[in-house]
Amino acid sequence: MNTAAAPLDTARTLAERFADGAAERDRSGAFPHAPLAALREAGLIGLSVPERLGGGGGGLMQAAQVVGAVGAGDPAVALVLAMTLLQHGLIHRADTPWPRALADRIGREAAADGALINALRVEPDLGTPARGGLPATLARHDGGDWRLTGRKIYSTGAPGLAYGLVFARTDEAEPRIGNFLVPMSSPGLRIEETWDHLGLRASGSHDVVFEDVRIPAEHAVDLRRPDEWRRPDSLQQAWSCALLAALYDGVARASQAWFARFLHERVPGSLGAPLASLPRFHEAFGENERLLSVNARLVASLAAETDERAPPAPQEAGFVKLTVTENAIQAVQRVSELCGNAALSRKHPLERHLRDVLCARIHWPQGDAVRSATGRAALGV
């Protein structure tokens, strides 16, 4: 990775390889250990780790480009990668609440060993904490350390994670809530393979159960009063929204590429020429190109502002995620409608792209939350 373009070139090359096995991983739900090992070998897992720790020193622009490229090959792999890039984009910031020595160690492990990390936040009863409420996962004092008990669901990458950043509440008289860094090899931690989803089936987003897991005191990396979590974090929102937008835009671009091949190769007997010769397909293909062009500019703008240490307001990052992902869904649906039965045949990748891209609507911030929060603010209510 000697030049700015090298990580993206590497990601594109690897994505072509990942695409060859994506259908089989989708059908079996097998976790993508081999693709992640390839990303590790290429140094892409440490892309957003500072150079002083041995990482790539990449900002959000580079991370989004790489995630988008990998997403075109296998979005389940890209999602696992995106979650690690996101965490390192946040924990090494100047105002990090993490103990600096601990953040540095985690960064070095990602750069040297490809150690994966993800935030484990969602619970069976709570749903996403972003909508409010206290987590049921409990951290209780045990001498100078903590003991953690609870269950997290939709824990993306669980079988391959080195660390989980677990959102929990304390057992104190006035509970605090926040993040505990938990090695996934800890005694008392187990993974229950519950993930059986419409899309992103190889992402390993299983349940993780904690039964009296011992946590060193310094691994309580960010504890706050509950009301302090209600203030949105512009940097976190920018990284999360840009990476998710790039991932699903990558799925749409893979669909568009498949569509182009289909239009050139399909020659109906009644026409005697490829479908690519018909004006109605020119218009449809052009409309998708318009949506993808808009997507590229939106993601690039959000990433550039963030890399310049001026991330936009959280609601604007939400607008980018919502607009880009809805454009991606619209593009894939258009291809599916125009290709007919071929689009839904499991021997072609398009039916998988359609299932995968619909998962964009589930990732936070969801459309209703973006619109409602913005409407309330604009109306002053």
TrEMBL record:
Residues 9-84 form the Acyl-CoA dehydrogenase/oxidase N-terminal domain. It comes from the Bacteria. Gene3D superfamilies: Acyl-CoA dehydrogenase/oxidase, N-terminal domain, Butyryl-CoA Dehydrogenase, subunit A, domain 2, Butyryl-CoA Dehydrogenase, subunit A, domain 3. Pfam families: Acyl-CoA_dh_2 (PF08028), Acyl-CoA_dh_M (PF02770), Acyl-CoA_dh_N (PF02771). GO terms for molecular function: flavin adenine dinucleotide binding; oxidoreductase activity, acting on the CH-CH group of donors. The keyword Oxidoreductase applies. Residues 244-363 form the Acyl-CoA dehydrogenase C-terminal domain. Keywords: Flavoprotein, Oxidoreductase. Residues 123-213 form the Acyl-CoA oxidase/dehydrogenase middle domain. PANTHER family: ISOBUTYRYL-COA DEHYDROGENASE (PTHR43831), ISOBUTYRYL-COA DEHYDROGENASE, MITOCHONDRIAL (PTHR43831:SF1). This is Acyl-CoA dehydrogenase. It comes from Methylorubrum salsuginis.
